[in-house]
Design brief:
583 residues; alpha+beta; 7-stranded antiparallel β-sheet; 14 helices; 37% helix; elongated
């Protein structure tokens, strides 16, 4: 769920309780479209994290700090200059829009009191952070929007600030029963679409929730509603808006316990998710931290790894084309036996050919069938035989060379796909550094001459404890997989890996104990989750004791062989394990 006007209403209430009258004492820009503002309040420092990232815009109060770049971007420097020691004197939501205005009082160069406005717009791909003077003229923004990008509104220094009107939508806090029943519920569309498209700040989730509370099919057409349906629906709508105006919130997040992933959130209880786990939180910021923190980290790491993804994709495409060409050439060499037989038959029956013949038909003594052999009329039978034997020898040499080349190409493609799988589960910049190192070690990219500190810092495997108390370790790349399996694990530990697809090596430390059946399943679920099959319903897992896992001579890191194993089919999930540590 994206932040809607209702959730932002709850956020603004929280901001007023925590940030109002606070003094700004630090502003940083940790990511290209992200601000971290530290506010000194009566209750200590509070950190406000704001992201205008088109993929994942948000804002919330957080306890976590984020490292700032060595050189601050221009927008950050401008904010520091004007409001670096300013006081937040007003925080308001623009109607029920997904926009918040911070009014900041500060002293100008002459020592006079003046005011500035910081607008936060959480509007999907149109999200922005806009800094204005007292006359609402834009001084700068974290994203510049020229007329060539938007014909509705330019966001550039010197332009007047305004929010584009949402045609046909009204503020739900100002709604009347008559208008609701005679206008909104008279639209020629489904009930939930009519609600969502009539009001500012109402998301599909809230529209569906209102229908669920009123016991109405959200996909039913407005024309199908009876008066009693309209009464129930307006009653639920009115109650929700009343709770909103009275700041009567129940901030909660809906969790899918199968993978411990957040599914949805709202400042009100979502009755339509009664079959899932509802976790109540003390504030909307806590909800958003829970919901967005991992997604934000994932979005940032995807952006930072885009160059690696492109490099790997290009190499995979190149290796695939090379392998396809080699396989085609190998298929062409399969006709070499035919040329060998031609030569042998000509040695036996060539005397029957007459000068100028373009072919000869003989009995193939290998199968007693007739065989027609094409001839070069300018050559003698013996010379034709030599020509066919030369073709056979050349194709034989080519086939032998291709066997080696195809094995090299297949190994290269497997390596690249394993690195791609590791990149898909990378969680931080240290993971990316390991992947970059592996790519350079194998010659896919040039070696990077980083600092000694960067070179010495390596990511660590994930460490979990399952519901039975057993410690489970998961490798996140080929180097970690190799170290886990052949340096960390002992002979009687259990080793898990997805069958025929790329994934992590998973080690269960037995400490001399016998594993209960459920621990085998938990480890297998982990192996499925940290693999290319994460999004599948069912994944087959091989497992065996580590002492039966072997590393072929000259094999690259992470590649193993085994001949005796057990198998099981599981659903990828983190439901039965708890993360202890990660890099």
């Amino acid at each position: 769920m994206a932040l809607d006007g209702i959730s932002i209403h709850a956020l603004v209430h929280e901001f007023n309780e925590n940030l109002l009258n606070g003094k700004i004492n630090k502003i940083s820009q940790p990511e290209r479209e992200e601000l971290l503002i530290t506010v000194n309040t009566q209750n200590g420092n509070k950190r406000l994290l704001i992201s205008a990232n088109a993929s994942l815009p948000f804002m919330y109060i957080t306890k976590d700090n984020k490292p700032a770049p060595a050189t601050a971007p221009g927008f950050c420097m401008l904010l520091r200059k004007h409001i670096g020691a300013g006081r937040i004197i007003e925080i308001t939501q623009m109607g029920l829009e997904r926009a918040v205005r911070f009014k900041i009082q500060h002293l100008n160069e002459m020592g006079d009191i003046t005011f500035k406005y910081l607008y936060i717009e959480i509007m999907g791909k149109h999200s922005n952070i806009i800094f204005c003077n007292e006359e609402n003229m834009i001084l700068d923004s974290i994203k510049h929007i020229p007329s060539s990008v938007s014909s509705v509104r330019e966001v550039l220094p010197g332009r007047d600030y305004f929010i584009p009107a949402q045609e046909g939508k009204i503020n739900p806090l100002e709604e009347t029963e008559e208008h609701f029943k005679t206008k909104v519920l008279k639209r020629s569309e489904s009930v939930f679409k009519a609600i969502m498209s009539s009001y500012i700040g109402i998301s599909p989730t809230i529209a569906n929730e209102l229908c669920y509370r009123a016991n109405i099919d959200s996909d039913a057409s407005c024309a199908s509603l009876f008066d009693e349906h309209k009464d129930r629906l307006y009653a639920e709508f009115h109650n929700m808006m009343e709770d909103l105006q009275n700041n009567n919130y129940l901030n909660n997040i809906i969790i899918d316990t199968n993978n411990d992933k957040p599914v949805e959130y709202a400042p009100f209880k979502l009755a339509m998710y009664s079959d899932l786990t509802t976790r109540e939180m003390s504030s909307m910021s806590d909800v958003l931290v829970e919901f967005y923190a991992k997604r934000n980290a994932y979005t940032n790491i995807r952006q930072k790894s885009s160059d690696l993804r492109k490099i790997i994709a290009n190499h995979i495409e190149r290796a695939s084309k090379k392998l396809d060409l080699q396989l085609k050439q190998q298929k062409d060499t399969q006709k070499r036996e035919k040329y060998k037989i031609y030569g042998e038959m000509l040695h036996t029956y060539g005397y029957e050919a007459k000068p100028g013949d373009k072919s000869i038909t003989v009995i193939n003594y290998y199968n007693n069938e007739e065989l027609t052999i094409p001839l070069d009329s300018d050559l003698t039978p013996a010379e034709n035989a030599k020509k066919y034997f030369d073709k056979y020898s050349k194709l034989k040499r080519t086939a032998e060379a291709l066997d080696t080349f195809i094995k090299q190409s297949e190994d290269e493609l497997e390596l690249l796909k394993s690195i791609e799988a590791a990149l898909n589960i990378a969680e931080n910049e240290t993971d990316l550094a390991d992947i970059r190192r592996e790519l350079s070690d194998h010659g896919f990219i040039k070696k990077h001459s980083g600092s000694k500190k960067e070179k010495s810092k390596k990511s660590k495997p994930l460490h979990f404890i399952d519901d039975n108390g057993f410690h489970i370790y998961v490798g996140k790349n080929n180097y970690q997989n190799d170290e886990l399996t052949f340096k960390f694990a002992t002979g009687n530990d259990w080793w898990f890996h997805t069958k025929k697809i790329h994934g992590s090596h998973v080690i269960v430390k037995t400490e001399g104990k016998e594993l209960p059946d459920s621990s085998y399943e938990y480890a297998a679920e982990l192996a499925a989750y940290y693999s290319s099959g994460r999004e599948s319903d069912k994944v087959e897992i091989d497992y065996l004791q580590k002492k039966n896992v072997k590393k072929p001579a000259s094999a690259v890191a992470g590649f193993v062989v085994y001949y005796t194993n057990y198998s099981m089919v599981v659903t990828p999930t983190l439901k039965h394990v708890k993360l202890v540590s990660q890099e």
